[in-house]
Backbone:
């Protein structure tokens, strides 16, 4: 199925944040943030980390590991993570076509939500920076140290659907990771894989995603053309 067809059938749109909307850590590398989170664990006496955690460039790997250590560890690491995400917003790079897609979808009268493992505060900081807050009906994102609520759990998608007043099967979710696709499948949400890096298209195909797109701009352009046709 084409991504445009999935969107045409959807009553609501979910957008992952880091990737489909912007590159959060374009200015502050994710590896630097991961190092900072490991520093928080080291300050708490956790210096002998599993190799996968000690060498990971992904701060989510460190955060999820911290959550296995205890509530305090999870809370301290999550708070530091959120602070770095907020700092990174000022140097985040926009995904081409993302803002246009948000505007066009909002103009269509259908609800739209950001569904992301990034922090709610950081996402709202971005939306305020680019004057997009009024166009987004809900932000379903990380707002606690409970890593179990994050994708691939369907929790954030269920929460988004409930807040928008639509059933999951009427929603379409654009994400750029297999984690997003797994969460969408678990929630019964139609999924569009954003293949923004080499090799992702094959991974999405293997994961049996509902549709794949290489660009957000093309989706926005299609929606504009469809809307013009509808208005004639």
Residues:
């Amino acid at each position: 199925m084409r991504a445009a067809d999935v969107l045409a059938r959807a009553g609501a749109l979910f957008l992952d944040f880091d990737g489909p909307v912007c590159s959060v850590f374009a200015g502050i590398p994710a590896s630097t943030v991961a190092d900072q989170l490991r520093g928080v664990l080291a300050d708490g006496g956790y210096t002998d980390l599993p190799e996968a955690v000690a060498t990971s460039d992904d701060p989510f790997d460190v955060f999820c590991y911290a959550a296995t250590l205890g509530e305090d560890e999870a809370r301290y690491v999550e708070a530091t993570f959120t602070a770095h995400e907020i700092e990174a917003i000022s140097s985040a790079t926009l995904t081409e076509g993302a803002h246009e897609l948000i505007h066009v979808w909002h103009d269509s009268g259908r609800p739209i939500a950001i569904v992301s493992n990034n922090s709610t505060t950081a996402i709202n900081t971005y939306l305020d920076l680019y004057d997009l807050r009024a166009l987004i009906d809900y932000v379903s994102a990380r707002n606690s140290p409970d890593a179990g609520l994050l994708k691939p759990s369907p929790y954030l998608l269920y929460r988004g659907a409930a807040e928008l007043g639509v059933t999951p099967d009427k929603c379409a979710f654009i994400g750029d990771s297999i984690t997003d696709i797994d969460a969408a499948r678990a929630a019964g949400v139609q999924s569009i894989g954003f293949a923004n890096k080499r090799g992702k298209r094959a991974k999405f195909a293997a994961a049996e995603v509902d549709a794949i797109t290489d660009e957000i701009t093309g989706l926005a352009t299609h929606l504009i053309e469809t809307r013009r046709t509808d208005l004639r």
